[in-house]
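queue> holo job accepted (flavin mononucleotide)
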Amino acid sequence: MPLRAVVYASQVAADLSAEGLESLVADAARFNRMAGVTGVLLHDGDRFVQYFEGPDDGVARVYERVMQSTSHTDIVELARGRVSSRQFPYWAMHRLPADQLLVGKLARADWSRFKKSGPDDIVGSMWGIDVLAVAVAPYVEAA
Ligand SMILES: Cc1cc2nc3c(=O)[nH]c(=O)nc-3n(C[C@H](O)[C@H](O)[C@H](O)COP(=O)(O)O)c2cc1C
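queue> job finished
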């Protein structure tokens, strides 16, 4: 089955409370589970970076909900495209704390490929997907 992935950055809406964010993520995870979508949401208090992946129709429906949400503004798509296998299969949606440095790095990274580098790949400039994988890894082990 062909899979698609989307990654974007956005600005947290000024009136979004901590409780509002919690219920938003719970609602997102519920919807994603039905849509067969998995991913992660990084949040530094000021900005979001979200990655999600799944079947074409599921990703399209989730993206629509994301675009409609008034809980963030200034949505900038960093990349969208095909992915050969799930890169982040761990959660339907899960919020991870991030610092501004990490969110900035993700927002500026090269997202022109979605496949994580393997141990045999040449280490040079890190792709966005690799920066995200390194940031997520400690939470995967703890889950
Ligand atoms: C940063 C962010 C990420 C979201 N991620 C998802 C998601 O992965 N799946 C989903 O179905 N909805 C997602 N949503 C939508 C919310 O779950 C929720 O339906 C929406 O925020 C409610 O509308 P409101 O923000 O205008 O109150 C997201 C919204 C925001 C702001």
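queue> Residues 80 and 138 are 25 Å apart (CA to CA).
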